[in-house]
Design goal:
This protein is mostly helical. The chain has one domain. Helix content is 88%, strand content 0%. The chain has two helices and no strands.
Length: 104
């Protein structure tokens, strides 16, 4: 009788350990997904700032009568930076997507 109680108690503890481990791993994955999506959002905010800077620069150049707006160093640099930031944001989103596909 005591052996049966001990056996059932051990089986219950094993199941409890499994559930605790599962929840810990899932929480860790969800936290990582949230962090990656937050980083992606921060990068997208910086991209918006660069677009605003490009717009200001284009307006300044137009007021000065410049014809070659696309050859301007500041505009080119901002466009290159936007390209790299978009790639980084997409990488973060892909990593988050991969983490969300973890088997349950």
């Amino acid at each position: 009788m005591i052996d049966r109680i001990r056996k059932n108690l051990n089986r219950g503890l094993d199941q409890l350990k499994w559930v605790a481990t599962f929840l810990a791993e899932r929480t860790k994955a969800e936290t990582e997904i949230a962090r990656l999506l937050f980083e992606s959002t921060k990068i997208e905010g910086r991209i918006d700032d660069l677009y605003r800077d490009i717009g200001k620069r284009v307006a300044e150049l137009r007021e000065k009568g410049e014809k070659s707006i696309w050859r301007d160093f500041v505009v080119q640099q901002a466009l290159d930076e936007i390209k790299h930031m978009r790639e980084a944001a997409e990488d973060y989103k892909n990593q988050a997507k991969d983490l969300s596909k973890l088997p349950e």
